[in-house]
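Justification of computing resources. Each target in the renewal requires a structure prediction run like the one illustrated here; the chain below, 251 residues long, is used simply to show the kind of job we budget for.
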Amino acid sequence: MTVRAIVRPCAVADVQAANVVAAPNVATAEPKAVAELGGNQEQDVAISIVLPTAQQIDTIVVGFASGATPPLGFWCGINGPYERSLGTVAPLTTAIEGGRQHYILQLPAPFMVRYINLGHAAGLGRSQIGLFAAGLAFRPTWGGEWGGGIGLTDTGTATRRRDGGFGIDPGVSAAQMQWTFGDLSDGERQQLFGMLKQRGATTTPFLVIEGGDNGPSSTEEVHWGLFTRIEPYERQAPGMSRWSLRFEDWE
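Resulting structure tokens:
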């Protein structure tokens, strides 16, 4: 497991949309609260995300998308004083449970933006999205020390019955992971500390992105969830440090 980026998403002030039902759901933390796209297949789908203020971003994720014919990608642009196209928010392969998948756009450099526009052409069929998140990523030079890993947590319960069987209350499974950043530079440490020090470090959802140098290659490498433990930063010797984190996915 190699963590390449951590993103604390920007707050969303408003969501405006055309040909989208329940568009504000994309701005909630709950991915099961979805927006319905493409009810009228003869019209383009367009969503405009308004941030409270102009902010620097370099990562956009449209997450928990599903549908019989999901789009090949969302075009993405901004308007206001710096109107321009940012590129395509492209789908990642490998669907997570329920056939849902994530779309991601990672910009080569941060860009100051307040209005973010997403859309796809008419005729691509009805689909759903459960999450929009955009922010400025923390990207460490090193993805993590040996010993990090990923596991599963199950919210269901199984109770042994007197007859030898089990009483089962089904739940859901979600990923949980832990890793240790080693040898962070002073600048990296300050950036990560500043991100985590903001109010709600363990109660505000973050994006954690795995993958190689070119970013994630599958939906399973993009995680939306909460930090469940933040260990103290350890300076061991000049040029040597450790900072261990634990994180749990939203299902």
